[in-house]
């Protein structure tokens, strides 16, 4: 069987629950062998998308291909090739963690006992405790060990590290790095920016049931503004008249040791306007200059920041930002 | 300054326990009671309304079915049989003029003891162990709440519901104009029901301390109620001492409307007090979220059998199934052990026996067939409970990771169904074997063992049908899966009250047990059994189809 170049292809996916439109024409492409970040606020539709991919929910409309197959009709065959970690793992109260790991892994088609032992060791998980006595983080580890021990082609991870401590988070990141080297594809739904920035080749940002942005982190940064912080020897004026300059703040600063008056200036600037803005700034005697690309957090905030203003303003705001 | 009731927050922080503020183990009980009442604002009125109405309806049917003293005398003679006594109450009720009052005390008190016990157990466990298991207790107890407040509130609410039910029953019965339905009897009847509720609330409080699982606590609490009923059944037919070991027996031996003895209620109140105190004491011997026995480490890996759908369903459901099997075993053995008493009792009323016996059935056969239909209800409950687990697996989110593996929905639900049907059939067989073995031992007739074990299997198709119905509900109306409990509940109503309220055949046959030939009293007919089996298969197929095509409900 020829391996498709895309592990996941979703286009125009719609899923409603009663009156709620959980997915509203969602498009998502995950290439084989990549680690794909799936970002979005709570209730944006990330888990619903993953559950459609698992064949647990039936799509209302749109097309969904998973590893070249139909996730609803061919669920069982496809599930042999993937492993899933939910964000909130529920275990059987009277089964031990070790039993739950074996159960899940064997139902998928078996596991490598050496790898299981290695993962238990790396996650420092005691497999003899009963499910009801595990803390949230340890329940999460049970599902992670079961999934990562499988060497499945595709890992579907829905906020998999919720409840893990920072040391375990680091272990998780190492293991995902190894999975990528082994050629496994990963769809990683996450809230943790550092995790996504470190692990993901490409990112899709989902919001209200739609993917609003998709691409490599660099691509996304190209689309957004660079932050600039500078101090100048003369007061800055007229910068706000330049197109592409936003959020300008100019403040006088106490005279420094050299005695001359200093002005602090901060703004963000669209990529095409960078050259003009820096030229204009240079006229005021630049003494220090700091510029950095937007962090993923800023990217996210830019897409969700307007949530606070109420959704009815979205259309106007997005139009204004073009 | 200090020592006044109005300490400022700054002053309050200086002492671990601010003076003037309550700090005992019961602080916050009032708040928790109001909270529980708020949560149960529909549930409890429905319970109370239903029990009051069915009591009134039963008395009305006595009046219409047995209007004249001669009718009632006939009924009394019918009931003076082992089966009649086992299903109702002690023989003494029949001795002096079986009026409507005596009928009510005899027929209804025992049956409604089961209902009030169910209400008390469900209420207490719901507000104690369920709260702990879900983690809500932890949140609530982090507030200003005494150690015993939650248990105290749960017991208070269950007790208040029982007392209110007692008052409603007393008022209702006193208001009905009928022979022998005296005001004092009505008051005693209501008080006995209330005292039963208190006692079963206390035992449920103890059950909630013993096991860490709410399912286990409910099972244990209900087992106590069931055992109390079974003890009195057996004691009333055989050795009276057994009836005196049962709370239900105590209540019935107050003989409301006949002797109006109040003192047996003291036994119930004492039991309530002792068990409540025991529950409070036990709760101090354990940690929050834990049972009395500390959790022990288990297997580091799974046995090969666990990774099959049937193996998984068996592992998850075996505890509950074993509980049902143990219940069936005990009940069967108790009923079987009084077979010789039953025969003896019958020799005394040989004449009546001849009139009563349908066709060629002996009285022993009649008695055992009634026993089997009671035991079949246990199996009905077992099959519904086992399939209810599938729903819990779905809504609690444990089925989700399973179905994300190569396990198909058909295999998953097939495993659950296979286990449910197999386990419930086994419960039936255990019941039949126990009844047969104990019966053979008490009468010396060894042939009873194979005969009754085989006869018990006649009920299997009805059990499978109920399983199919539960699965069909799960497949197509998943939120209504629990509605399948109506089948065992209705069957119980028919078996216990059907005869005395003279239920029409059409209503009797609404229960799947109504279609099972009353072996060994009646000849074995295959047609209804085959039809039930076919229906069971059809419903199961429909259910699987529903499970395959619907969305999974996820937390």
UniProtKB/TrEMBL annotation, chain A:
CDD domains: ABC_DR_subfamily_A. It is found in: Cell membrane. Pfam families: ABC_tran (PF00005). The keyword Metal-binding does not apply. SUPFAM superfamilies: P-loop containing nucleoside triphosphate hydrolases. One of its GO terms (molecular function) is ATP hydrolysis activity. This is ABC transporter ATP-binding protein. It comes from Streptomyces triticirhizae. The lineage of its organism: Bacteria, Bacillati, Actinomycetota, Actinomycetes, Kitasatosporales.
